Amino acid sequence: MRSLRAAQSLASRSLLLSVRALQGAASPSCVGARWSSSSVLPPRLPSPSSGAVPAGVTGAVSFSLTFASFAAAEAKAKERLPSDLLPQNVVLYQYQACPFCNKVRAFLDYHDIPYKVVEVNPLSKKEIKWSDYKKVPILTVDGEQLVDSSEIINILQRRISPDDELTNDEEAKWRRWVDEHLVHTLSPNIYRTTSEALESFDYIAKHGNFSFTERFAVKYAGAAAMYMVSKKLKKKYNITDERAALYDAANTWIEALNGRDFLGGSKPNLADLAVFGVLRPIRYLRAGKDMVENTRIGEWYKRMEDAVGEPSRIQE
């Protein structure tokens, strides 16, 4: 009976989980970002140890092959920062499937900023009880709190590039488009059918911070709830055909590139990283596969995967 009551309780709360984990966890409409001087600081995590960079390729290879390999690697290199500009003791409090959290991770990965991840349980939120801010993402840098995905990125960008203009009009326009339009096409697509809703919540359950009982309840109760809610989201955002809306958004983005590899030209800018970040959680779900197969976004997405590279997350 205790397990049944627990499952029923979790089922009733699955809607809250769903909305915050995959749609509104870090809504760009929340209050502007701030470095918080809260008297309650997050739990202190150990500083990352410095790692050595591999010295290079060894063995007998021809000069031409070595040079070609080096050039290709340089073309795809991350935007690594000088050590004096590198943020220290970075911790990201997140939901793995949250598109806004993925925006922040894309920025950190691209700039090769080492960071630790604390996966927040969306039901109890015990991992962020120390904070007055109850949404994700939350980023802490040397214990200072930063909130709201777009503003986290704005402040980090000013910190790592203090002499550069933060953004231009085109870049700002498309960053707003990501927060105000693109993200709203995701939930109606990944919960479009019962099977797709189950696929999405299987991913959430496997990668989220849940107990065994919670994982089972979240997968099935959450999928059922969000299948129904997705119909209301379609109406709210004036979507008649989910896939058509997603495909139109993907092609609109590619048209904005106007033949460039990235909106930033030869390398990604903040708008590129924002689009890539919010699409990354759905890329290998059915909706994401359909998007790549039926639009022109695939080549750009692959270039972004190469540019962002491997995660700079510190594995513990």
TrEMBL record:
Location relative to the cell: Endomembrane system
**Stretch forming the signal peptide:** 1-21
InterPro entries linked to this entry: GLR_AS, Glutathione-S-Trfase_C_sf, Glutathione_S-Trfase, Glutathione_S-Trfase_N, PGES2, PGES2_C, Thioredoxin-like_sf
Gene Ontology MF term list: prostaglandin-E synthase activity
Pull one GO CC term from this UniProt entry: endomembrane system
Every GST N-terminal domain range: 88-164
Record flagged with keyword Aminoacyl-tRNA synthetase: no
**What is the E.C. number?**
5.3.99.3
Q: Read off the Pfam families from this record.
A: GST_N_3 (PF13417)
Report which reactions are catalysed by this protein: prostaglandin H2 = prostaglandin E2; prostaglandin H2 = (12S)-hydroxy-(5Z,8E,10E)-heptadecatrienoate + malonaldehyde
Give an example GO biological process.
prostaglandin biosynthetic process
Topology in membrane? Single-pass membrane protein
Tree of life domain: Eukaryota
Q: Name the UniProt key words of this record, in alphabetical order.
A: Fatty acid biosynthesis, Fatty acid metabolism, Isomerase, Lipid biosynthesis, Lipid metabolism, Membrane, Prostaglandin biosynthesis, Prostaglandin metabolism, Signal, Transmembrane, Transmembrane helix
Instruction: Give the family from UniProt.
Output: Belongs to the GST superfamily.
Question: Under which name does UniProt file this protein?
Answer: Prostaglandin E synthase 2
Origin organism of this chain?
Answer: Eragrostis curvula (weeping love grass)
